[in-house]
Amino acid sequence: MRQGFPYARAGQRIGLLGGSFDPAHEGHVLITREALRRFNLDRVWWIVSPGNPLKAHGPAPLDQRIASARASLGGDPRVVVTDLEARLGTRYTADTITRLRALYLGVDFAWLMGADNLVQFDRWDHWRTIMESVPVGVLARPGWRMPGRWARAARIYAGAELPAVASQRLLDGPAPRWCFVNIPMSSLSSTEIREKGGWRASTPA
Description:
Layout: E1 13-19, H1 26-38, E2 43-48, H2 62-73, E3 79-82, H3 84-88, H4 93-103, E4 108-114, H5 115-119, H6 127-133, E5 136-140, H7 145-149, H8 152-156, E6 161-162, E7 178-182, H9 190-195
Parallel strand pairs: 1-2, 1-4, 2-3, 4-5, 5-7, 6-7
Helix pairs in contact: 4-6
């Protein structure tokens, strides 16, 4: 494996959680720990993106966001914070997943996201490629359970949905395959933290 890339062996079940993490917070940590348990994952990799194509304003510097993400996890060995998109030179999730599947042959990947992202998932570049490439685990955040259920992507792929009671079997079959689970969740968001000034105030000019 290339230097700077996380290690994974064939047969491991790894969830991919992408985002700006601007900054990382307890909500990200709770989603991750619930995903490990509910989807029977061995590891979760946080993919801290250089930027978000759907957001008009750029995030804090990548190094700062990675440091924040690592600090928020408290050394949990099951979670790896990465700058994979920066290393791979990819901008869109579909491209990142394609590259990772080619690099990590035999590793079982799943894409993880909150129900709020499911609502706008059909706006993502090549979103159908994501659904057709890897299983997708959706974790319901406050206020997004019903909107997530009625998302266009959810309706189009309704026939590929696993019931929540079968969530641990998410990676037991090929894509398209997805599961929507309700979890106890912190309502804290990165946006709220930025608006309170506790994050960007420390961002270098």
